[in-house]
């Protein structure tokens, strides 16, 4: 289906990075918003979204971790993905204005959020192969 060597996984979750860095290009960034902005840049550079930028049932201000997979699509139009990532950034910013994501989660809670994010990617990778 997809050439995993061409997939780029953008994340701020070190557990996702450690698990997939040998299988595909993985970019480890500092924050959820950094992930969204990097993915936006890649989508503008003719990549398509393989995973939804707001996957899982957690609101953008509930979890500090996000991992998104993209794939180069060459010259094909990807306006749908451009609009989606822009809307996701807008939604993220709106939620941060309502109630910012806490930066001081207890370690066990932060690890739980990392596990949720990792499980989303773990469920998608086999479907892409």
From TrEMBL:
Superkingdom classification of source: Bacteria
NCBIfam families assigned to the protein according to its UniProt record, in alphabetical order: GrdX
Source lineage: Bacteria, Bacillati, Bacillota, Clostridia, Lachnospirales
Database matches in InterPro entries: GrdX-like (IPR047735)
Protein name listed in UniProt: GrdX protein
């Amino acid at each position: 289906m997809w050439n995993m060597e061409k997939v780029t996984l953008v994340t701020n979750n070190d557990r996702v990075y450690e698990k997939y860095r040998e299988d595909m290009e993985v970019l480890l960034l500092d924050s959820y918003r950094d992930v969204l902005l990097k993915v936006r840049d890649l989508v503008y550079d003719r990549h398509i979204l393989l995973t939804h930028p707001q996957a899982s049932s957690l609101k953008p201000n509930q979890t500090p971790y996000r991992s998104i997979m993209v794939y180069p699509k060459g010259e094909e139009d990807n306006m749908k993905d451009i609009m989606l990532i822009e809307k996701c950034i807008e939604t993220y910013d709106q939620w941060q204005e309502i109630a910012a994501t806490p930066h001081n989660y207890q370690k066990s809670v932060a690890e739980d959020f990392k596990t949720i994010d990792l499980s989303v990617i773990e469920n998608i990778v086999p479907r892409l192969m």
